[in-house]
């Protein structure tokens, strides 16, 4: 049978990656971090010296993008070719370049096809797919669709805590710049019809995971 898809969208720093991963563990589901695919492509483009604001050059780099990602929430890794890039794709240079890569429509179509194939071949009863356009574009027919939001100050604070080695103001600025660039491509701040909003501003991590699990139980 086709796996049950739980689609979760939200902005940077909403906690969607860590929350999705933990909810997947509880459910015995796979976990697909679509942002990691865009990040891996940005890493690959930077590695090849590509100007990531040049759509044609990005598309060219996407042509030989050999990418693999684990769907196992307990053994998460990302590879490009022979290189393990799990940590490298979180570097600020990649975060700064990724919106340029994600802006190219042909790139989005190619990665979306890849996401659907990964879900279909996951071998799991379900997959939590997390990103910006999962509820609207990648799997609009998913039985469970969630928009995970949080107030901008809270998102910036959470992201700063994750990257404690970097200056908090610089982290907040980079996050807001990236959100602004991404918002021109997909509207990830408004819930599409039928999408359940979870606002995690006043929730801690476990409460947010429980809120997601409650929606999954109610809708499957
Ligand atoms: O989720 P994360 O912040 O790691 O995503 C990295 C980038 O990938 C986003 O800033 C956005 O440019 C892009 N992205 C996207 N569509 C998705 C997931 C991520 O455009 N579904």
Automatic annotation (TrEMBL):
Keywords: ATP-binding, Cytoplasm, Kinase, Nucleotide-binding, Transferase. It catalyses: dCMP + ATP = dCDP + ADP; CMP + ATP = CDP + ADP. It is found in: Cytoplasm. It is an enzyme of class 2 (transferase). ATP binds at residues 10-18. Pfam families: Cytidylate_kin. GO terms for molecular function: kinase activity. Residues 6-217 form the Cytidylate kinase domain. InterPro entries: Cytidylate_kin (IPR003136), Cytidylate_kinase_dom (IPR011994), P-loop_NTPase (IPR027417). It comes from the Bacteria. Its EC number is 2.7.4.25. Belongs to the cytidylate kinase family. Type 1 subfamily. This is Cytidylate kinase.
């Amino acid at each position: 049978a086709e796996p049950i898809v739980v689609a979760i969208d939200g902005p940077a720093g909403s906690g969607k990656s860590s929350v999705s991963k933990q909810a997947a563990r509880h459910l015995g589901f796979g976990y697909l971090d679509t942002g990691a695919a865009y990040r891996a492509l940005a890493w690959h483009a930077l590695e090849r010296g590509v100007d990531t604001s040049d759509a044609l050059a990005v598309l060219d780099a996407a042509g030989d993008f050999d990418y693999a990602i684990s769907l196992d929430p307990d053994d998460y890794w990302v590879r490009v070719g022979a290189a393990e890039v799990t940590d490298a794709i979180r570097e600020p240079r990649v975060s700064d370049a990724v919106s340029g890569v994600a802006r190219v429509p042909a790139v989005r179509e190619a990665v979306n096809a890849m996401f659907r194939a990964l879900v279909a071949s996951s071998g799991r009863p379900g997959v939590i797919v997390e990103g910006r356009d999962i509820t609207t574009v990648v799997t609009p027919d998913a039985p469970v669709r969630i928009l995970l939001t949080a107030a901008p100050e809270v998102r910036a604070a959470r992201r700063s805590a994750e990257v404690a080695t970097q200056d908090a103001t610089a982290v907040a600025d980079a996050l807001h710049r990236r959100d602004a660039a991404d918002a021109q491509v997909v509207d990830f701040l408004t819930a599409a019809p039928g999408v359940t909003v979870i606002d995690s501003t006043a929730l801690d991590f476990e409460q947010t995971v429980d809120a997601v699990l409650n929606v999954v139980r109610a809708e499957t």
